[in-house]
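Q: A reviewer asked whether we had any structural model of the full assembly, not just the individual parts. We don't, so I'm hoping you can provide one. Inputs are below.
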Amino acid sequence: MATIRALCRAEQEAKVEPRSLADLNLPHAFKEVADLSSNSVVTEIEKCILAAAKSILAGHGFGFNVPSRSSANQIYVPEIDRIVLKDKSSVREFANSSSVRKTAITTRVLQLIHQLCIKQIHVTKRDLFYTDVKLFQDQGQSDAVLDDVSCMLGCTRSSLNVVASEKGVVVGRLIFTEDGDRIDCTKMGVGGKAIPPNIDKVGDMESDALFILLVEKDAAFMRLAEDRFYNRFPCVIVTAKGQPDVATRLFLRKMKMDLKLPVFGLVDSDPYGLKILSVYMSGSKNMSYDSYNLTTPDIKWLGVRPSDLNKYKIPEQCRLPMTDQDIKTGKDMLEEDFIKKDPKWYAELELMVKTKEKAEIQALSSFGFQYLSEVYLPMKLQEKDWI
Amino acid sequence: MATIRALCRAEQEAKVEPRSLADLNLPHAFKEVADLSSNSVVTEIEKCILAAAKSILAGHGFGFNVPSRSSANQIYVPEIDRIVLKDKSSVREFANSSSVRKTAITTRVLQLIHQLCIKQIHVTKRDLFYTDVKLFQDQGQSDAVLDDVSCMLGCTRSSLNVVASEKGVVVGRLIFTEDGDRIDCTKMGVGGKAIPPNIDKVGDMESDALFILLVEKDAAFMRLAEDRFYNRFPCVIVTAKGQPDVATRLFLRKMKMDLKLPVFGLVDSDPYGLKILSVYMSGSKNMSYDSYNLTTPDIKWLGVRPSDLNKYKIPEQCRLPMTDQDIKTGKDMLEEDFIKKDPKWYAELELMVKTKEKAEIQALSSFGFQYLSEVYLPMKLQEKDWI
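A: Here is a predicted structure for the entire assembly that you could use as a starting point for your response.
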């Protein structure tokens, strides 16, 4: 526990927010978005529409300057360990047969967002689509324009009051307010508290935890919640139940930033588990314009790591052979900057691809149902066995 | 509100538990399971193993008497509106080459469950599988035997302390305890409380609600939670986010039984929405032995019903054409006892299949983002427009 305390202290003394793009003096310019208040979004939209109106009155018609979100305009910046968007953009003209539809959709989405921000309510992308099916035709079109609008206005999608559906749950040594309600996550039974879809309603985080335990799957979360693991090792336990959703990513980042705690990742020992860590840390490609707000820097890979399989003598029968697809995914990941920058992570993935073996967190159950909470994690934490 | 109050009163005055199989004097015998305490499960397992030991000592070898869970042994009983299991069973002999493996697996599962019930901890099916991968080979085998063991011991799967992963959330006028923690669902922000995987840790439900609103999807749940709909219409709002999971079904049933409140279903107007209501009400085929504990009788279909599409003038663009598969599913459902027994439900489904149109709850957003919470539901409830 002394070592975790030291790590925790180091984390709290460190300047946590140095990793801004502006500090780096990079050769490119970048497009990044920020969390804006509903009022600021309203103002930005009104500016945008006023400019269009002036342009029309001046006889020039109108168009929107839309940042490009294509992969050619994306880049991984190792210094900040995130995928970000370069500053290429193009004008979406109304008076152009190839862009008239998209310009009309953009205008309509701006109007809808304006309404949401004035009313201060949140909706899903699906709700947004249904407000004008005739124009949008399919949800892919309104979704894409929504991301364009984020980039145009320079704000996160959450600032637009369009939220993703929630999957995540949290339990442990965390108290926060949600829409005015005080939530104590040590008093959330074994099921935990559902992470809300709208992060802007979350505030006043307090905690006496020493670390955050980020768990890939529901089953491991359940085990730890039922055993009230956070009472023995003061921590906050969080899971998105598989693929990280936007709400859980925002919540994790907010915890890390507000509480200044180290984050330990507990995932399956397979390329997919590593992919999940990478989404939490470096972001996903299609939301690279918002990577700053969605990513949590410096997650430690606690386990289950490929080297754990022999170290903890996971029985042969509990190891699964990797499929051809798994091996291909693993090999592709070896080429990714995200892995290459860390020799220890690289070595682990290399070992996985070489042994062609994977294992789930549940494989630890072969030593007893509570091996995870009573042996594996305490040992890992005491031995500082994270990379 | 007066009408809902009357319905609520009727519900509370009614004998809620009259629908037992035993009361019906039916020609078949049935196999049903009950919630047993961990101690009782331990006793049942010990009895079972003692009988096996005696049989071995008497020179007869051993076997287990396992109820058949095949569809030939399942029947829908209209009087209680559930699928139940008839009493056919067969002996699983150890000294028979065709059943030796399954008998060994059954013995091992009994041993593992014994251990779980003594320790009073809960695990997932996946955890159970991993405790002896060599014997079980694949999870399908341990899962199937787990259901056999439920039937053999005459207890629910939850009583075995093997739980499903949770997906559901609840918000509104409900207070309950979970593993000793007091949870007030009016103070759960906008994200709500995650429904716990283990219903046996849930107790002391209290509520001043007039009804329970069962919502198919997350987006509608979010809308109602953010608008704090339960403050205007005193209710409890619950969703499993799509396909009902076991934890949410158990939780809904417990609310209905303990609080004696009417339940209103809000689902998409498509065969899948109706299917979801049917799973909550009548159970799913593969868990028919436990239909009593998993089903919630008498859910009212509030909406979105096929007749609502014209009544509420849902724009043409927000209605979707049914696919061939949808139409086939709809036609098949018209043949099901569950639908046939209620002429109003039958008429609605017939209309859906005839018009070949479906619509999601979100289609209501075409009238404004808050149309669902501010117009549609209040109108439905005031006009008693449920069937």
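A: Points you may want to mention in the reply: DSSP finds 16 helices and 18 strands in chain B. The first strand of chain B starts at residue 30 and ends at 31.
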